[in-house]
Specification:
Keywords: Glycosyltransferase, Transferase. The chain folds into two domains: 2-60, no CATH class; 87-354, Nucleoside phosphorylase/phosphoribosyltransferase catalytic domain (Pyrimidine Nucleoside Phosphorylase, Chain A, domain 2, 3-Layer(aba) Sandwich). The protein has 17 helices and seven strands. It has helices spanning 2-17, 20-23, 29-40, 46-59, 63-76, 104-113, 134-140, 150-160, 167-170, 172-175, 178-184, 189-194, 213-225, 288-300, 307-320, 327-339, 342-354, and strands spanning 87-91, 118-122, 162-166, 204-210, 231-235, 249-254, 266-271. It has a seven-stranded mixed sheet, sandwiched between helices. The longest helix has 16 residues, at 2-17. 48% of the residues are buried.
Length: 355
Amino acid sequence: MALVTMSYNFRPFIQAVGSGPHTGKNLSREDAAQAMGMMLSSDATPAQIGAFLIAHRIQRPRGEELAGFLDACDRQAQKLPAIEELVTVLGCPYDGRSRTAPVTVITALGLAVDGVPCLTHGSGRMPTKYGMPLIDIWQGLGVDWTKLDRDRLSQSLRQHQLSFYYQPNFFPAAEQLVAYRDQLGKRPPIATMELMWTPYDGKVHLVCGFVHPPTEGLFQTALNLRQQTCFTTVKGLEGSCDLPRSRPAIIGQYGQAQGDNHNPEWERLHLHPIEYDLGGSDVSLESEPGYIEMLQQTIRGDNTPLTPAAIWNLGFYLWRCGVSGSLQQGLTTAEQNLSQGRLMAKVQELRHYVC
């Protein structure tokens, strides 16, 4: 009887988002949080969860609803304990990369080298894309974050300025929703929510990657509702926070990523890599073992096809995070740190820490 009662409690949410363009209704932030909470706790039945996710995808979520989803995750997830500094969180699609070679890990390493605490997060292989996830890239470098508990991961942020949050270890309620992605064959709205997800209890500079321009508006609405005072949006490669080299980088900035971040303002940037002699084709992800080998070579300071993308991305983020006074200075610092092997030294430091 209890399960029947709970399923009846969830039914109005399906009726609201699944009634079509004429009679359908959007959820309030509070109702969206309740709906997500019931899905995470399995108070909704599997049939209801599947129906809600596909109906909500067809209707398209609003920023208010995504804010509610994030509220529910805040209540149920085991987040990393806070440290004193502002942490840059790089939000990338959990279902990974399949077409272009990622440089996200290089960006994270480079920020850490210059004293900017950086957190990446994700899961294992995930539908519908089943692309290469960040955890596999870290493990390819010999850094297995899955072995550490939350306190050790938070300590890594404090001592080494870098850490990784592995969802299966600390948020199993969200992990049990992964099966629905495979069964539905489509990304549900929670895939958009993940790009804004911050599995950390302190102050953050949040970086969100996206593909479709309307998604950026959802980010702005949801994050403003959640009083996120510092964030960056990037029309990145495959929805990641990796800046492309084959086209101008379209970036939105809100707030300051260092120092006083009160009274934030929205700023639009169009950065042309060709103006910095860094334009060119984006490196294809032809094979994962080949990519890991190229990644290791790049981090060691060798000149590889991935090196220009590494410099372009790291240079921008050093500028955005206040380490460098200009984009050109950031690019110069990025090139020097790569060529001098400082990123590889950070990898070796992390390998020792996680052992």
